[in-house]
């Protein structure tokens, strides 16, 4: 399990930020950011929450309690007709193994269908671009 400092450094680098940039955002010293990343110190609760919001990850992700960086607030965002990701997750967790297998197979089919549509749209846009180019 990764240490908060390693995770923080990776998130910062993924955003192409210097320790100074993060320090300025948090209104702390560069040395404090460095200490967080090396594990010499850990951020307090308020700073941890600020970091989670800034990097759009969960505090559990920053703490190394999960490998999924998703901000848990996204679970409550309605997808359609008031149904949230959390609602879907709850339903899946309470399904029989047979029904869960059926749902997963259907999801694979939909994933394949989406990929085919994307490829068709990409191919079609390339054809249209080629036709327009020939008209010039």
Oligomer: single chain
**CATH homologous superfamily designation of the largest domain:** lambda repressor-like DNA-binding domains
Distance between the termini: 58 Å
CATH topology of the largest domain: 434 Repressor (Amino-terminal Domain)
Q: How many helices?
A: 7
- In total, the number of strands is 2
Strand order of the largest sheet: 1-2
> What is the global morphology?
extended
Chain-averaged pLDDT: 90
Structural domain tally? 2
Radius of gyration: 22 Å
Poorly predicted sequence stretches spanning 5 or more consecutive residues:
none
Kindly provide the name of the CATH class of the largest domain: Mainly Alpha
The main β sheet shows up as: 2 strands, antiparallel
Q: In percent terms, what proportion of residues is strand?
A: under 5%
Helix share of residues?
A: 55-70%
Tell me the structural class. mainly alpha
**What is the N-to-C order of secondary-structure elements (H for helix, E for strand)?**
HHHHHEEHH
CATH architecture of the largest domain: Orthogonal Bundle
Description:
The mean pLDDT is 90. 67% of the residues lie in helices and 4% in strands. By secondary structure, it is mostly helical. The chain is built from seven helices and two strands, in the order H-H-H-H-H-E-E-H-H. Strands 1-2 form a two-stranded antiparallel sheet. The chain is extended. Helix 1 (4-14) packs across helix 3. 11% of the residues are buried. The chain folds into two domains: 4-74, lambda repressor-like DNA-binding domains (434 Repressor (Amino-terminal Domain)); 95-135. The longest helix has 39 residues, at 97-135.
